Fold:
Amino acid sequence: MPERESCTNSTPTKVLRVLVVEDEAFIAMLYADLLVDMGHVVCAIETTEADAVAAAARHKPDLMIVDAGLRDGSGMSAVTEILRSGFVPHVFVTGNDRAVQASRPDAVVLQKPFRDPDLARAIQRALSAEPPI
Structure:
């Protein structure tokens, strides 16, 4: 769960449409609040792999914040499926960053718990990442 603190240095230069994929409703709302405070728009919050894939196709987000492990499916599998239609910058949020890094060494991963500036830095890293060829 994120720890709240000021985000004054993390104001985005561009408003991003963000898809949040998180199966814990309270945590998803915290992420959404954080993203809105950073100046972004949350286009959807989804709780399952299938719903995340459908929402990405429907909303065409600029960024995804994805819980790597979901109760119904996998956030990592959802991202794999979504990226088949084109690259979307993404940040995996997880309690086990080593497991995600082991299977996706180039992934931008944020270990829970984190602070607001950690999310802002992870978003910048994701936006700067080169799409896979």
Q: What stands out?
A: The beta strands are 17-21, 41-46, 63-67, 90-94, 109-111. The chain is about 40% helix and 20% strand. Confidence is low (pLDDT under 50) at residues 1-12. Helices lie at 25-37, 49-59, 75-83, 97-103, 116-128.
